[in-house]
Amino acid sequence: MASASRGQWSGKTGFILAAAGSAIGLGNIWRFPYTAGENGGGAFVLLYLGFVLVVGIPVVLAELAIGRQTQKNPVGAFKALVPNTLWPYIGGLGVLTGFGILSFYAVLAGWTLSYLWGAITGVYGGVMTAEASNDLFTQLIGNPGLSIGLTGAFLLLTIVVVKGGVSKGIERTTKVLMPLLLAILVLLAIRSVTLPGGMEGLVYLFQPDFSKITGSVVMSALGQALFSLSLGMGAMITYGSYFPKEENLPQAGILVAMFDTMIALLAGIIIFPALFSVGVDPSAGPGLVFVVLPSIFGSLPAGQFFAIAFYSLLAIAALTSTISLLEVVVAYFVDEKDWNRSRAAWIIGGLCFLVAIPSALSSGGAEMFSTNFMGTGMDFLSLNNIIWGNFSLSIGALMLCLFVGWKWGIPAALVSLESSGHKLAGPSLLGVAIKFICPLAVSIVLIYIIVTQQYF
Prior knowledge:
With about 450 residues, the chain is mainly α. The chain has a single domain, classed as Amino acid/polyamine transporter I. The chain contains 18 helices and no strands. The longest helix has about 35 residues, at about 305-335. It is globular and about 60 Å long.
């Protein structure tokens, strides 16, 4: 049993909602729709689903197996399994990655609060031109005080939840937020597909045109499958470490991956019919959620309600992700340094806020962090995304696959997964995936982003 000081999920449902909340974030509701739009719709979606099945689910199960076996944070887990080796440094990379991602992700999450407030106050209620919408976004990200304040507010929300503990903080919060998120998604999806011309959006999203499949489309689908599940930074190791011994972990892990994928598809079902109903190009890119959608809410029936619900959804998804990012780091200090949980949450959260300030200023708030930071040719936030969200995550996921497949071993991982007596269907397939398919897939992603400098 996990120690009382570490905490434990009350059961499988609590874990599934919390772990799915970890995986579900801006990657699903912001990134997936615009990436699908940029890469031709249906063919990209089909590839994405295939990669979730053969790469995403096996890596989720591998991380969960380590967490359940050791009941420790990523660093402590490797120390317990292979003491006196260099492997704990891979756990350390995961903890550092969680902190690094949180330091810029919180900035993007803060934007969702601004847009939610704009929706509530009716900013998007009337017909708005694309230029006006773009001006609003530029004013938001270029306002240093507002951007820093929104980042701090979002981190404060995150700290309050994490300091409450595993069951009374994270689980209690996600048990409210995740059903709410799902209800909003389903409601918006139903509304969106009933819009005039909305069915064209569904055709675009789900009818594959295989002529649009290129190497770039394949890599985008693989990258989306890997990164949307929060793999490679120890979040699933940490959440798995709180999993009750008697519960069915293989089933729970698969459900988390399926839940994450379903949310991404629902986000697409919301956005593409809405775009097609007003004749907007679906390949609008990263500005889809923050620039394009605000300009069309006024053209939709009950547009203000649509806007409020959508940005509520976006904020909830962002919060459940920032909670897991902070928890990875807090768990390390609670386990390895014997810190009090509340102290760890406040200190790490406060430090993250300080580190996040340059990212908050990197979109025009301060010239030195914008456009060409230290001669890199990019802003500070984009650079951090490349370091932590691309390279660090990829390296972490690759090393995790190599560890489970070739060092710790598939038999040991299966013993951990099945320790409650619940068997994993097709265990030999998991072995093949973790030993061969997943390391190859992650290596290809890593090589691709190095050679092409096209980042996810």
